[in-house]
Sequence to fold (263 residues):
Amino acid sequence: MNRKPSKQALRHRTSAHYDKYPFVFDQEGILKEKLYHRIMGSAILNAPRPNPIILDVGSGMCRVARMVREAINGKAISVDISLQTLQRAKAINPDPMVNGDNTSLPFRSNCADLVISNGVIMVTPDVRASFRELVRVTKPGGTLVVSVYNRNSWYYYVYTYLGAVIRRLRSLIGDIGLMITLFPLFHLSVIVLMSLVTRRLFIFPLRTSWNLFHDQFTTPHCTFHTSEELNEWLQAEGLVCEEQRKEAANQLLTLRSKKPYPS
Fold:
């Protein structure tokens, strides 16, 4: 009988996964699409001035920090569980970086004007604990932007069924086998999709595409959620929903909420 991994074991496996396959999805066309067509970008552009405190929780290679620098000449603190990813990011990110677990963030309560967690908490061992931590560090009057995988999307079926085949195949033929069988088709599909999204020919580095492949199909743990769940989370934490939208071809559910001042 298979035993369910403990939260600590899942946390360790997730950290090791992103140490090996850091999420680097920050080409210029992608960043512009996120800045001008996503809830996250709108929140950055409308962050309070001057010198807002912005936390990017689950930052990967610090693309939110780059967006903040370029859009509002500000700084974002990048937080990620993968130390290797942050060490790689040193070469391109001059802003603060913190190696931390988003179920227990190393920040005081009510410290940030804007908290962003884009497509991260659903791969943590405890999605609700992660969400509560994001709320905790958001200031009263501050904004929280969270994206999770959409249960009512095409990607749920791709990850659940095709992903199961890929994960099983990986156990048999390893990464080298995947690289010469399924990965070329994935890489071509990403080029076509992103060319359509950005409306220009999209040149995508093989290493970046390879890491994205593993982010999409071989993460140690992943959950999917509905709009109703997100609304329940907001209500439980006393947040006010300002906007909720399906993004990334309906793969993600994104919400922007406000943390009210104490009455």
The chain is about 50% helix and 15% strand. The radius of gyration is 18 Å. The longest strand covers residues 138-149. The chain has two domains: 7-152+223-258, 157-217.
